[in-house]
Amino acid sequence: MKITAGSRWKSAVCATEIVIVKAPKEDARLECGGVAMLAVSAERAGAGAPSPERRDGTLLGKRYGDQTAGLEVLCIKAGEGSLSLDGRPLALREARPLPSSD
Domain spans of the chain? Predict the structure, then answer.
């Protein structure tokens, strides 16, 4: 399935759910816990668990991204699996400081 801005995805192995803020420039494989993510409307195949090296977790309300691909996602449901794109871990985006009001 193609990753498009505004689409919702869920993990196949944990409770993580995300919304795509910026789609990647090229087709890519979006993963959580080391397993490909599913469209939110798809059924999970069964009980699974994130791979041990991909258990850093996702945080509710935080943005994650990959600068190389141009991907940015927003976590709408936290989980124990960590996000990656084509095997590269997604970085937690830091909030930009607001300008001073002086």
Answer: 8-92
**d(Cα 76, Cα 98) in Å, to the nearest integer?**
24
Token readout for 10 is 């869920």
> What share of the chain in percent tops pLDDT 70?
98
As given in the structure block, the two tokens for residue 86 are 């084509």
Whole-angstrom distance, CA of residue 76 vs CA of residue 100: 30
Contacts within 8 Å (CB) and 24+ apart, 57-61:
57/81, 57/82, 58/16, 58/18, 58/32, 58/82, 58/83, 59/92
Is 0.85 topped by the overall pTM? yes
DSSP for residue 58: B
